[in-house]
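Usage

Read records sequentially. Each one opens with the input sequence:
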Amino acid sequence: MSHILKALGVISLLLFTDKIYSQSLLVETELFEQKGGWVVDTQFFDQMGSSYLLAHGMGKKVDDAYTTVTFPETGEYYLWVRTKDWAPFPKGPGKFQLSIGQILLDSVFGASGQPGWKWYSGGKINIVNKETEIRLKDLTGFEGRCDALFFSKKNVKLPDNLIAEKAFRKLFMPQVLVDEGEYDLVVVGGGVAGIAAAVQAARLNLKVALINNRRMLGGNSSSEIGVPMDGDLYHNKYPKLGRIVREMDNYFTFFDPSKFGKYQDKDNQIVFRGEKIGQYADSIKKYLVANEPNISLFEGMHVNEVIMNEKRICKVIAVDLGSLKRHSFSGEIFADCTGDATLGLLAGADHAYGRESKHETGEDMAPDIADNLVMGSTNQWHSRKTNEKSDFPIEEWMLQFNADYNFEIYHSYFNWETGFGNMHTVDQAEEIRDHNLRAIYGNWAYIKTHKPEKFAYYTLGDISYVTGKRESYRLIGDIFLKQQDIDRKIVYPDAIVTTTWGIDLHYPDKKNSSYFPKEEFIGYAVHANRNKNIYTIPYRCLYSRNVENLFMAGRNISVSHIALGTVRVQRCTGMMGEVVGLASYLCKKYSCVPRDVYNFYLEELLRLVK
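and closes with the structure output:
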């Protein structure tokens, strides 16, 4: 019955929207002509229905974002603003105002004391000119956020649930569907695994589409998130694997200056094509992909629809987050390298989440009862020294520290993480990120206020508002790898990708739990055999058992929660991507699906990596 009521609600909304369309205007803030100091946050498109502008000033007001819009006609309009109080404890700091046609509105948004994304009334306004400038004016620098503005001649009720919101929004979006053509391999996700899969397949003359929902390649191993590549490339069962990973990891060691342009060591930095290359080498990853003629790179596109033909994916549809146009990609073979198993879930692939029980897996490290605990997500931060003293006052919405419990540190470590099971790592990804921010700001405010002798001359240099995840959904293949496979070094006939990282699992720090129960933001790692536990993963972990033409590479492959602890580091996931690229070549060569490669062409696959 609830589904019927929701469907009727959507139908009613569509009819309502059709009637008022000519008298209304929806303004998506991520499409503003000038973003000022605001940033476009695209991470939570599926969870809240859109991208949005974020005032990520780390406590300092950011410059106005502004644009010029064309109203259907002049006169009086009702205004609504879709925003969120991200820290309603009791009221958050993300305050902002609107300026419309050079008139600053009295209403202050972003600090309602109410959780969740909502439409808030801005009252009645008078539009004098059809062409009118709109400005978002940040008031605090503390992550104020604005999704959209809606102007209507009528005082209407706007949607209050995500299903209705998406239906409402769709009627104002570009209706064109851009056909991007057909590909031998469509790779969704541009992290290390996705890059490796795309490059390997392209070098074997497959036509490849690489779709990434951010404007920067590298995923966790990018400067946006800040997780360095780890694992070992030199103890492989098959030494040809890892060649592409080495290129994006240490590309400068292969440089031919006459071919790639000048580079030099300057202040311990590599300068490549005029840009300093740090630990994450963002531009090198981009250059690697851009110079493969068989790869078509689609950045800033988020896949949120799948067209199936029985048990096979035949097409994916992605939203261009910069224009909101929809693009379709047809393919023979698809690879889910999203980390969150986004493509697999859309296709109905069998999947797992959280910790399996001992009864299910027989793993001695597994809990007695299955639960939703996963490894935490991290937002890295660091400070920098200045020539002037500065304050950072303690505020009520921050996590509150005291003399017995605080962190006298200048930057984060790997163990600053949250979302261990108290929040769902996908469905509540925004809440996890925001909880990390409350912890960072709260601790920084405490040590700045109470320990000025050490921190008076330091200021926050950077906080990554893009979250790095360790774990979410895993897709199930023909083998579901478990702890005992790794501990006993079970050799499968299709063993192919070697990992050297011991089973490394993160759990909430007990002391942190005692001070912040169910709000932990510090973890501890269990990895007794780190860098010693060499194991080779079978190929059958890299494709879906029920979606016939779907590969996966990355932290979403077919492993238990416990086994994930050893396969999830970037050099290992990159080699998974290389294998997916090789297997895709065989799928094209023999007009077959991933399972057939194991059943009929395994020896040929293994010859390709020897």
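Summary fields computed downstream for this record:
- The longest helix spans residues 429-450.
- The first strand starts at residue 24 and ends at 28.
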